[in-house]
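Read as amino acids, tokens; as here:

___
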Amino acid sequence: MKFSEQWLREWVNPDLTTAVLGHQLTMAGLEVDAIEPVAPAHSGVVVGKILSAEKHPDADKLQVCLVDVGELSEEPLQIVCGAKNARKDLIVACAMVKAVLPGNFKIKKSKLRGVVSLGMLCSEKELGLADSADGIMELPQDAPIGSTLNDYLQLDDVSFELGVTPNRGDCFSIAGVARETGVMTRNDVKSVEIITQAATIDECLVINIEAPEACPRYAGRVIKNVNTLAKTPMWMQEKLRRCGHRSISPLVDITNFVMIELGQPMHA
């Protein structure tokens, strides 16, 4: 069972350090196998907005971008970028000059094919947030320009990995670990607010339960007119990533999210 400490503390927030919390979970029978940062250390990476992206005068696969980083620079930064998805109005993770990326990779003022570049537009892989990436990181349009990426994504967090034994299936969820933590530390546990959604269509899907002793009850709902072009919100992608789940699509991500938080297996 892998989960984000921040997510757990949304449910129960004992006045304990990360190390002490881990020790107490182990002493309670939920052995902590690992506590790891959710992202490698970096500095100087901020939220920026591409104001323009023009073809490099001397390189077919490069673009010269002007990037707004808010009050951090009086003028937009000129950055040469080779990512295919770099485009006007895109919100990006911008490593400014003097930034240090994972692996002690230092960003310096440079020239790429004769054009000055004052930074770097980063992918999730370069920031240690993913094993691979097809282009630079795309942030939501409402991300605050000029804020640090660390603050925006709340990367000051760790992931706990528990070696949950088969007899503790109640702790295969955030809610389950929160209940255990609340009892262990004598702290109140906040329950998730569930808003009932009344059915608006009458269509049903017939389900035959062939093993009623193993599955005494099966529940589902027919949902239509799903926007297949929608994207999973960044906050949900991050919560899933910190629990070891890759974002796939909104429907799959929602079912995984509910399963991790409440322990209810779901499928869409």
